[in-house]
Amino acid sequence: MQFTSPLVTGRLERRYKRFLVDATLDDGSFITGSVGNTGSMLGLTTPGSRIWMSVSDDPKRKYPHALQIVEADNTLVGVNTALPNKIAEEALIKGLIPELQNFDSLKREQKYGNNSRIDLLLHQENQPDIYVEVKNVHFIRTPRIAEFPDTVTARGTKHLHELVDMVKAGNRAAMLFVIQREDCDIFRISGDLDPAYAQAFQFARKNGVEAYAVRCHISPKEITATAMVAIDETI
After folding, report:
1. Beta bridge partners of 231
2. Which listed site, 42, 106, 121, 220, has its alpha carbon 20 to 30 Å from 17?
3. Is 194 left (phi over 0), alpha (psi -120 to 50) or beta?
4. Are 104 and 124 in contact (CB under 8 A)?
């Protein structure tokens, strides 16, 4: 996934109201920008952190600048949760995940479950459809181990139960965790931060829901899934 225009650099001053950041850009200007991430962003909001922001020329946007990348733990981390679906789609099309590479068509945001939309729906003639739920990951507290979630996610728990329903109906279903950083070799569920999600994940896995994790190469030019990451399912 390539950024459509060059990112500008600066330093993070603070993140607040979940969706806003104050920053000082390298040209000395002080700006307020948006954050496309409603999560806690644990470990990624340290004042003074190096950041990269996109700039929109849309006159209707209240905040032209949008936070895209934060430097943390000496690595670049993508923080925009609107991007993983695009990253996942590119990864599937190029066959990065062998178990999910045989499909004739790919549809986005299809209705399913209880007022939900599946991120990606894979179809192949004479084969079960594959419902793929994509989750953004950028939380690391133990070196080389990425975790999800970084806060309680009732919506994520709901999705897991809906994926089980899809499997019971004769389809395939998969969780695809897109890790927007590359300093990890293992992925696991952070059960201490959201026990309900961890329980739902275990239930889903026992009932046929597949799980995959990929890490990404992050640069000011692009964010691209590059390799699968082993999943530690010990919760």
Report:
1. 187
2. 220
3. beta
4. yes
CB–CB of 76/218 below 8 Å? yes
Q: How far apart, in Å, are the Cα atoms of 170 and each of 46, 150, 160, 166, 207? A: 46, 32, 16, 7, 12
pLDDT at position 234 = 87
Nearest to 150 by CA among 17, 230, 37, 234: 37
In this structure, the chain runs to a length of 235
Closest CA to 201 of 150, 149, 160: 160
Find tokens 């990624």 and name the residue. 44
CA 156/CA 162 separation, integer angstroms: 10
Q: What does the alpha-carbon distance between residue 65 and residue 168 come to, in Å, rounded to a whole number?
A: 44
Backbone angles phi, psi at 157, to 5 degrees: -65, -40
Is 63 within 8 Å of 34 (Cβ atoms)?
Answer: yes
Structure tokens at 1: 């996934």
Q: How far is CA 104 from the centre of its chain?
A: 25
pLDDT of residue 182: 96
- pLDDT value at 114 more than 90: no
Quick check: helix, strand or coil at residue 127?
Answer: coil
